[in-house]
Specification:
3 strands; elongated; mainly alpha; single chain; 405 residues; Receptor-associated Protein; 3-stranded antiparallel beta sheet
Length: 405
């Protein structure tokens, strides 16, 4: 039988990391549940540290993004109106147009009708719903406040989606600008410049040194264009493979945090994400250790995730959350101070949510400033390169014209 690696949370909120022989990942999840653990991840041991970026893009997701937010909001509205859970799921079954989404809702409804708890029914959907989603639903079931829990969950999902959308939108224009100007530069070097090179060769005219360099680069682009296309593709493939190596990923993420401009921005973005997750979970009655185990998995930076994992061990030994997170010296000082205030006032969940609001605003402002500076810099840099190429090509013509005149 194949060997699977798994991660799970035990009843005390501790993260378990081990291996198990099983027929499939579903069997691994079932065994862990029977042992009283909360499965977080189960994958073949032969795979790397994470899923391929290309496979993740192509992987079908019945519920993701706006669709998941709408499903959560609609379910909360129906439950708030007094509809029984199975009736609410039956109503929601008619709304999605996607067959996979309808099939997922049908499975959940049938399980609920059979006496299964909603959180367990969601957990059986093999990763369709995140650990955070399932744990918040489970906390709502235990507290008897499913309607309020789902409303908070929908708000969390909407805020997370909005933050991710702002990051993506901030990078779209610079990326398009960079790609378009780079393609124009390649066309200029690979098609236009070689024609001038042939003309100057026939005239046997003396050329300035910078013109010779540009003409040489143009011939290189024309003769080896396939290499210039293959090298970036191979580099992206190599980075995708290395990204799944835990050691390389940890070192790279640690290096990113040390960079002068990108490091503070990523730290603030991840801090806002962690604070929003922890605050939402604690507000719904999830224990702090369990919340830290889930919060670690929502972070994209492996170095910060390791700091959270180390902090969870310290919290388990009686150290305060702010002091435990401060040991790693990776999270912003302001966030640690706000968390400390929340601990001392007994309102840690509310202060975590306020911390998330603060750092989301700071991140949004920082991204706006970065975009405002990045676009002119990229435009000026690429325009300068194009200008140098044009000047190098036309200068000999201008010199020859003066000589003839």
């Amino acid at each position: 039988m194949p060997l699977f690696r798994y991660k799970a949370l035990n009843a005390r909120g501790e993260m378990l990391d081990g291996q198990m022989e099983a027929v499939s990942d579903a069997e691994v999840v079932l065994r862990l549940q029977e042992q009283g653990h909360l499965p977080v991840e189960a994958r073949l041991a032969s795979e790397g540290g994470g899923e391929s970026a290309w496979r993740a893009l192509l992987k079908p997701k019945p519920f993701a993004g706006e669709r998941l937010v709408q499903f959560t909001q609609q379910l909360a509205t129906l439950l708030g109106a007094g509809q029984p859970l199975d009736r609410a799921l039956t109503i929601l079954l008619e709304l999605p147009e996607d067959e996979a989404a309808r099939r997922t809702i049908t499975d959940v409804r049938d399980a609920v009708r059979g006496g299964t708890a909603l959180s367990t029914a969601l957990e059986r959907q093999h990763g369709t719903f995140s650990r955070l989603y399932i744990n918040m639903v489970r906390a709502g079931e235990a507290g008897g406040s499913m309607h309020e829990t789902l409303l908070r969950l929908a708000d969390y999902l909407e805020r997370s989606r909005a933050m991710r959308g702002r990051v993506i939108n901030a990078m779209i224009y610079p990326a398009i600008l960079l790609v378009m100007v780079s393609l124009s530069l390649l066309f200029l070097l690979g098609f236009v410049v070689p024609q001038f090179s042939a003309m100057y060769e026939s005239l046997d005219a003396p050329l300035p040194w910078f013109t010779k360099i540009v003409l040489g680069v143009g011939l290189l682009v024309r003769n080896w264009w396939f290499v210039l296309l293959a090298v970036p593709a191979l580099l992206l493939w190599w980075l995708d493979r290395k990204r799944r190596d835990p050691v390389f990923r940890a070192r790279f993420d640690e290096w990113i945090l040390r960079q002068k401009f990108a490091g503070p921005l990523i730290a603030k973005l991840e801090t806002a994400r962690l604070a929003r997750t922890l605050g939402t979970l604690l507000k719904n009655g999830v224990p702090l250790l369990t919340a830290l185990g889930i919060g670690r998995n929502v972070l994209g930076n492996r170095a910060l995730a390791d700091s959270v994992e180390a902090a969870a061990d310290d919290v388990k030994n009686g150290i305060g959350l702010s002091a435990a997170l401060a040991k790693g010296k990776r999270f912003p000082r302001l966030a640690l101070q706000m968390i400390q205030v929340g601990e001392e006032s007994g309102a840690l969940d509310a202060m975590l949510l306020r911390t998330a609001d603060t750092f989301e605003q700071e991140t949004s402002l920082a991204m706006d400033r970065m975009l405002a500076a990045l676009v002119p810099v990229v435009t000026l840099l690429l325009a300068s390169i194009v200008g140098i190429v044009i000047l190098a090509v036309l200068t000999p013509i201008y010199d020859l014209t003066n000589v003839i005149g």
